[in-house]
Amino acid sequence: MQRGKTFIVSGPSGVGKSTVLKALFAQRSDLYFSVSATTRAPREGEVDGTHYHFLTQTEFEEMIGRDEFLEHAQYVGNYYGTPKKYVDAAMEEGRDVILDIEVQGAQQICAKRPETVRIFVGPPSWQELERRLTARGTDTPEKVQQRLQRARVEMQSAEEYDYLVINDQLEQAVEELKAILCAEHCRPADRLDRILE
Q1: Which is the most buried residue in 2, 68, 106, 139, by most CB within 10 A?
Q2: Can you say how many angstroms the Cα of residue 25 is from the centroid of all Cα atoms in its chain?
Q3: Residue 94 zone, left/alpha/beta (φ > 0; ψ -120 to 50; rest)
Q4: What is the pTM of this model?
């Protein structure tokens, strides 16, 4: 059985990453979506192991000490991280793992595992990104501008990624993601052993 691969998907707030990934998972039951661990308290309706792996600060710090995270960071007083064991177990089962991770986390993971495939999801234009952020109706105009400023910084990292998917039409973006997953499994290093056995 072919071992699965790890794919990082990053992109600025408002670009539609979650929508694209939801549509991808609706079409591909063989993929594994990596669930992060956190020390923040569960919100109403959140289920341990589905939305997050909820840990105490002591548990999280012990895992850091044992090098059990692919990446981790502190944000607003809480830890967030990607446990290695779930990612590795899914890959051993032959499943591709999808990580929805921001740019800094992606850099941490690739420093440890350079074979990780990085996909950046970008907007069709700045005007469209601003329209999407405004249309959500969840942020003040000032907050929208802050998100756009952060998006400009994040977009500068796009060149470090292996692929850039433009989320203009949802169906097209999903097809491009599926094509990337397929292409990555067609590399000679992954297939020659089968022929030469």
Answers
A1: 106
A2: 13
A3: left
A4: 0.89
Percentage of the chain beyond pLDDT 90 is 82
Amino acid at 48: D
Q: Which residues pair with 33 in a beta bridge?
A: 98
Could you give the C-alpha distances from 185 to 1, 22, 91, 119, 180, in angstroms and in order?
12, 22, 13, 15, 9
pLDDT tens column, 103-156? 989 999 999 999 999 999 999 999 999 999 999 888 888 988 998 998 999 999
**Max intra-chain CA distance, the chain:** 61
**144-152, long-range: CB < 8 A, 24+ apart:** 147/12, 147/13, 147/14, 150/12, 150/13, 151/12, 151/13, 151/14, 151/15, 151/123
d(CA 94, CA 153): 35
